[in-house]
Amino acid sequence: MIKIMEKEKTSFVCQQNEAGRYGCVNSQGKVIIPFKYDYLRVYEELEEVLLEAQKGKKTGIIDLDGKIIIPFDYSYIGIFICEGKVFWDAVNSALDKCGIIDLDGKIIIPFDYDETSIHEENEKVFLIVAKDEKWGVIDLDRKIIIPFDEYEDIIGYDTDEEKVLLIVKKNGKWGVIDLNKKTIIPFEYDAYLEIYKKLLVMKNRKTDFKNHEVLEILEYIKNC
Known about the structure:
The protein is an all-beta fold.
């Protein structure tokens, strides 16, 4: 499917040629980005024109002139915007480690982590990170919010109330806490599954999920 983009008073399309390569053509039919990429995607959430581009297994960010904004050093790049600031959640190809970079490619969080997940609560950005099979939560200054020695797994859960909850595993059991480590759902469950703002939890693990309870997370928030 071809989608016509209109940004910075420029109309263009990203398309794939017969050879399977991606490029961009303007409204006059002129090629403005050569058909040399394995994938192209326009970041529609940004005011300026930036595109995610892939060459083989490596990903970078380019502008509409083809200028490289973020070098092709990454196997994955995900965008996160908070209060007008743009961050990229990325995986460095050479190191096979995760970190955070800003719009100019400056490293905000070093590529030291096995996994990263970036979130926002009350206009503050924080990250769930894993290193050497230990999980914790840090801010953009690498200040520790939740230490790395308390939980066996941490998963961010964004709610409709601009609040982030953490689905965490402790001593083999799953529960839910907030950023202040207040228990929202007790650590009593063997498994969980997210179903649109509900948490399907299970005691006495069954592969078919027959013995389960459905917990309304938003109700827990309101009653806390």
